[in-house]
Amino acid sequence: MATRTAEPSALPVSIDDIRAAHDRIRDAIVRTPTLISRTLSEMTGATVYLKFENLQFTAAYKERGALNTLLQLSPEACAAGVIAASAGNHAQGLAYHAHRLGIPATIVMPRNTPTVKVTQTEGHGATVILEGDTFDAAYAHARVLEAERGFTFVHPFDDPRIIAGQGTTAIEMLQDVPTIDTFVTPIGGGGLISGMATVARAADHAIEVVGVEAELFPSMYNRINGTDMPCAGDTLAEGIAVKEPGAITSTMVAQLVDDIVLVSERSLEMAVSLLLQIEKTVVEGAGAAGLAALLQHPQRFAGKTVGVVLCGGNIDTRLLANVLLRDLARSGRLARLRIRLQDQPGALFNVARIFDAQRVNIIEVYHQRVFTTLPAKGLITDIECEARDRAHLDRLIAALRDGGYETTTVELA
């Protein structure tokens, strides 16, 4: 995909900019570890190293670019304050470091932003203004306030200072694991991958750079490949659900990035669940996109030494619970079975005896007599149950059918 024709000096961010950014910010951010995952390596066929950026204080790499930008403001700009439009990790990273440095920060968020994100951002010392029903409306209002009040606008991705700060992630990864030959990096607006690709180009050995987008939001893929796939839908990876990538970042991605792959919602869910189960770490959907690419496209990365950034860990706890339960259901450890019974004494008891004989735990029972297409003397019972694995569940279903019960599974989407 990439033309790789431009010299680094022709681009708005150089390796020297990123090295300077690292010198500037490293004492005020967490030096997150880059660790091998032996289990994920065995699963994917690649040697997988994970960079745990979800361990930053605000649980995301966005602090890097925000701090690098703040530290380059003039005294006058610091006194006037900064402003951003964001409902996510950029807002918290900017708010936290601005407060730490004594710089007033204003964050404009859409009115439908979850209360927890508003309170978290306010907790980092920022003034939050709710404006508009969409990000675009919040962004437009932030630019108006910038002009009216003399604020400095800090863009979430399309700024050389932001890109240089994000690129420090790759500096640390290669310091820890010099043998990495492939970066697999989530793409939203493109700030992180632009910085990481700049570092990759300056390395002493060839490093392939592969971007990852959700199938529902292939905005950079469209921009680079000239396609026109829709960008819409409820993706688990809302942190990279960007409809329009940056102008600066698009130029850098076109010249420095080797490939962009798309991942499904199911792969994203699986990646979030595996990271919690295997690595015991909480990662949001966007942060799990790199692993999702390895899971969905294993042949693409087989045999490579891959560096994956777990770029954020800010996921709603209820959403995380749903993801984990759905994963258990897909693996056969949780199931809902729909069983047709005759409406007579002992019917449910006799079914429960089969569950007991197969040592499958019943979690909940839904008995349906009225809202069914069965005859009046028939009924449907949905039973949620817990098995050891798919084979155990299959043995239960076979035993129920052998007992004369019409049994089907209620499948997930």
TrEMBL record:
**Which residues lie in coiled coils?**
none
Which InterPro entries does this one have?
ACT_dom, ACT_ThrD-II-like, Ser/Thr_Dehydratase, Thr_deHydtase_catblc, TrpB-like_PALP, TrpB-like_PALP_sf
* Needed co-factor(s): pyridoxal 5'-phosphate
EC number per UniProt: 4.3.1.19
Record keywords, A-Z: Lyase, Pyridoxal phosphate
Reactions the enzyme catalyzes: L-serine = pyruvate + NH4(+)
Matching entries from Gene3D superfamilies are given as: 3.30.70.260, 3.40.50.1100
What residue range is the signal peptide? none
Q: What GO terms describe the biological role, i.e. biological process, of this protein? A: isoleucine biosynthetic process; L-serine catabolic process; L-threonine catabolic process
| Gene Ontology MF annotations | L-serine ammonia-lyase activity; threonine deaminase activity
| Annotated ranges, domain ACT | 336-413
What family is it from?
Belongs to the serine/threonine dehydratase family.
Checking PANTHER family in the record gives: L-THREONINE DEHYDRATASE CATABOLIC TDCB, THREONINE DEHYDRATASE, MITOCHONDRIAL-RELATED
This protein's name: Threonine ammonia-lyase
